[in-house]
Amino acid sequence: MEFTFEEKDAADWIYRGEGAANLVLAYAGSSPAFIGKVLRIQKAPRNKSQHKKIPTALTMHERLLWKDMGDLVSSANKELVAQRYVQHIMTPLLGSKYVDSGISIPVSREFLESVEKNVISQRPASRVDASKVGTHCDSVLLLSDHSLFPDGIQEGEFCLSVEIKPKCGFLPISEFIDEGNVIKRNVSRFRMHQALKLRQGEISDFSRYDPLDLFSGSKDRIHKAIRNLFITPQNNFRVFLNGSLIFGALGGFAKSTNFSVEEAFEDALESVIQGDHGSRTKSFLQLITETVYKSRVMDRLLEVQKLDNLDIEGAIHAYYNIISEPCIVCRELKGEGSHKYASLHSISLDESLKTVKDFFIAATAKDCSLMISFRLTEEGNIGPSYNNVYLESTSQTFDYKANFIDLDLKALKNMEEYYRRDQKIVSCYTQMVKAEQEVDKATSMGAYENAL
After folding, report:
1. Pairwise CA distance, residues 197 & 161, whole Å
2. 390 in helix, strand or coil?
3. Residues 26 and 38 sit within 8 Å (Cβ to Cβ)
4. In this structure, how many other beta carbons lie within 10 angstroms of the beta carbon of residue 93?
């Protein structure tokens, strides 16, 4: 597509949401070429100067890590890196049916500056404080809007979409997990991370959701996961009707669902889900459950997540092999227990590269989102055929499509931060459990003494 976005085009793109690294804008104009599309625009830290363009978007060690992917290594900017990473690495793993690698489109600086002005009032304050539109970029990524079907919305039609951020769906069994961190083998990373987020004020309530339920393959546990995501959505659960958000938060964390929010959502479903008031939300959550269970789409994602078979506590040592620096982790152990990791420091460079590469591919799979879109199946529809699912509670049949989004390549320099955060998460959760046990013990003792 030979096209460059200029300043005049910025008004046609509206804020859809954002993650840590990118803004997402949806198209609201009339050009057939962009209807049903979204833009992913790279963000830049607000407290740092934006760097000038450099010959490659990857560092020396990243080029070594991804050396087998020639055009990825030679990419001139981060947008091309993102597009090629999804195209050449994530698509073969997850399946082309579920992944859209997008198209890189040139942009002017004026377009990006105008976008920054247009969306700043719609972004969460915490996001605005931390970052802004990366006006140094010379291209953006054009992707399909997976909250819609490719052929758009016909008059009188409705498209209902759910976005789920599943997170890590398995418990690590790596032999390199420290004895003091064995809780990782029994409690999901997501559940443990909630304690740290609560302490740091990122969230106001502990989520009821556990990824192990969603990835279990059990219909009952999948439904439990979906229901708990609805009760405590945070940034893990959003719903769109015809591309517009009707449940959840755009770019931050949604609070626990209260009565008024649930009533508004129940009303919003009236155009799509049949049934009396009070039954439509339950039916919709059951529809998601049936689709996740029937499609087995979580199985694909879990397989990629499990490429991380050493855990960060093992992979960090391979990382130091690659950058040819003394291992800080082993140094901090001061010889006590560091022998446990000696085998990792004796593996070849190729083995170290594979370990770290698999860790980062798994990290992408642990942090992506799943979009599932629904529309009523109509007999005689002309166009591409889709899988369908029958909703017994309403006697309705829905077409559905599922897509993985936000398949971001993580920066190699983040490895040390991943390790530090992992240690902090485990420590915070362990302290929380210990404090709860002490409270329970004191309560039990008090009850015993009162009974005497």
Report:
1. 28
2. strand
3. yes
4. 17
pLDDT band at 17 (very low <50, low <70, confident <90, very high): confident
Half-sphere exposure in the Cβ direction for 205 (13 Å, CA):
16
Note the pTM of the prediction, 2 decimals. Answer: 0.89
CA distances, 253 to each of 32, 237, 262, 441 (Å): 34, 10, 17, 34
Q: Could you tell me whether strands 369-376 and 139-144 are parallel, antiparallel, or unpaired per DSSP bridges?
A: unpaired
CB neighbours of residue 448 within 10 Å: 9
Q: Cα separation of 18 and 390, whole Å?
A: 33
- What residues pair up with 5 in beta bridges, in sequence order? 107
- Count Cβ atoms below 10 Å from residue 346 Cβ, excluding itself: 9
Q: Give tens-digit pLDDT for 329-382.
A: 999 887 666 788 999 999 999 999 999 999 999 999 999 999 999 999 887 554
* Total residues found in the chain within this entry: 452
Please name which of 247, 254, 25, 5 lies closest in space to residue 118, comparing C-alpha atoms. 25
Query: Can you tell me which residue has the tokens 């499990």?
Result: 306
Enter the tokens of residue 249: 């938060």
Q: 126-134: long-range contacts (C-beta < 8 A, 24 or more apart)?
A: 126/252, 127/18, 127/251, 127/252, 128/46, 129/46, 130/45, 130/46, 131/43, 131/44, 131/45, 131/46, 132/43, 132/44, 132/46, 133/23, 133/41, 133/43, 133/44, 134/41, 134/42, 134/43, 134/44, 134/50
Q: What does the pLDDT read at residue 54? A: 47
Q: What is the largest CA-CA distance in the chain?
A: 84
Nearest-5° Cα angle at 27, 21 to 33: 115
Supply 376's token pair: 């009523």
Look at residues 438, 439, 441, 424 and name the one whose alpha carbon lies nearest to residue 195. Answer: 424
pLDDT of residue 430: 96
CA distance 405 to 148: 14
CA 86, CA 293: separation in Å to the nearest integer? 25
